[in-house]
Amino acid sequence: MAVQTVATTPVTPVDLGPAAALSCRECGERFELGPIFACSSCFGPLEVAYDLPAEDPEALRARIEAGPENIWRYAPLLPVPADVAGKPNLNPGFTKLVKADNLARELGVTGGLFVKDDSGNPTHSFKDRVVAIAVEAARAFGFTTLSCSSTGNLAGAVGAAAARAGFRSCVFIPHDLEQGKVVMAAVYGGELVGIEGNYDDVNRFCSELIGDPLGEGWGFVNVNLRPYYGEGSKTLAYEICEQLGWRLPDQIVIPIASGSQLTKIDKGLQELIKLGLVEDRPYKIFGAQAEGCSPVSAAFKAGHDVVRPVKPDTIAKSLAIGNPADGPYVLDIARRTGGAVEDVTDAEIVDSIKLLARTEGIFAETAGGVTVGVTRKLLEAGLLDPALTTVVLNTGDGLKTLDAVAPTSGPTATIRPSLDAFRDAGLAH
Amino acid sequence: MSVNVRIPTILRTYTGGQAEVAAEGATLSEVIADLERKHSGIAARVLDESGKLRRFVNVYVNDDDVRFEQGLDTVTPDGAGISIIPAVAGG
């Protein structure tokens, strides 16, 4: 077994529950659990390999259902110690799966349309899920500082989780993010550093920092803790299936930034099938990007199996990763399941944010506008079947990206406080 | 042309633990060939069997991602800083 130099000496033995090893997704080489993320043979991404519970599915379902109403109900399937629910963490998850009948009518979906609304997490994005797992890995490996490269949502999630769990935090963001995300990242009291560049520049900076003594002893949730961090997105798959009555959705529309979330949702669905927790039936996975940063969509449409990086230019900043690490795997999964990858313009994103708000009372951030917009486009193109059960992800809260809709969302009228003025405004009907 | 190459942690077993090494070459391809002469085995980690950059390796010449430039044919000016970085980060 190959062993790499690690930044800190892990507390031994490392207790991360059912996690048995790290395995290279490219070449299959296995490594001991540790704060490493790339294969030393081929640079491929490492992911957690498990000894999953050999348990009667009925008993395991019952054990999960009796668990806490957060992601720790799935602790037997995650790289966390069995007593994780008792440790200081933000305890995210078990967000609402909203049956979106009004939106379904508007879009012509008859088979059941659901919005998995992850704006209900503690810092109002799905990032709380992945960070919660990374915090447990950081604890296990003895780190005392948490860090990340972020398009905004992750910075807030790391800052908040560090505050709760007793870590120092120092996070890095592009200097020109939306104010809502900057304030949310800063308010938790950790260090917040704006980098003069785009997200890919920030990401590159963090990858270099981690190999330098300056970054020694730091747990970068999406770099050296990335194999563990990514597993948090599996909980979206688990929750969707449990909330559908332990059933796979037929179709699921997922936003793509690095592509990690989409690949881990697929991994989660596959695990549920293997464990017998859901019936094994076909499902299709669809990826959603903004046109101004659509390298995966472009590769999908061109029939390529590699992703050519782009320079992002879109209002969907949380998805503005021009060099997506998991892009090739997203292509594999979309093609394997019979899904697709599509993109929408910034104008379509704004329209779709408003459509979701108007029909379901859900105010999504720009990434949610991307998934709703792509859902509409895929239905029109006949790639999504309106007669099948479809789940659309909203991964963050619209309050974080007010700039996107502020120019076209405001008071209908401003009037004097008099009945005459109200009548004159023509709103009394 | 003499350049400085930043080596990621997972390749430092080939450079005796050094995080930065000097190399010669007018293009990235030549620089990698020189690295291989000085630190045997390193090229096979960065290049695949067909001699192309592995898909999970990012290489920057003076802050420019070579995938936006000419790939392995990217010119490496005298004194350039070259970074080899695992691509599987972020998101």
From TrEMBL, chain A:
One of its GO terms (biological process) is L-threonine catabolic process. Transmembrane segments: none annotated. Coiled coil: none annotated. The modification N6-(pyridoxal phosphate)lysine is found at K127. NCBIfam families: thrC (TIGR00260). PANTHER family: L-THREONINE DEHYDRATASE CATABOLIC TDCB, THREONINE DEHYDRATASE, MITOCHONDRIAL-RELATED. This is Threonine synthase.
TrEMBL record, chain B:
It comes from the Bacteria. Gene3D superfamilies: 3.10.20.30. This is Molybdopterin synthase sulfur carrier subunit. It comes from Streptomyces inusitatus. InterPro entries: Beta-grasp_dom_sf (IPR012675), Mopterin_synth/thiamin_S_b (IPR016155), Sulfur_Carrier/Prot_Modifier (IPR052045), ThiS/MoaD-like (IPR003749).
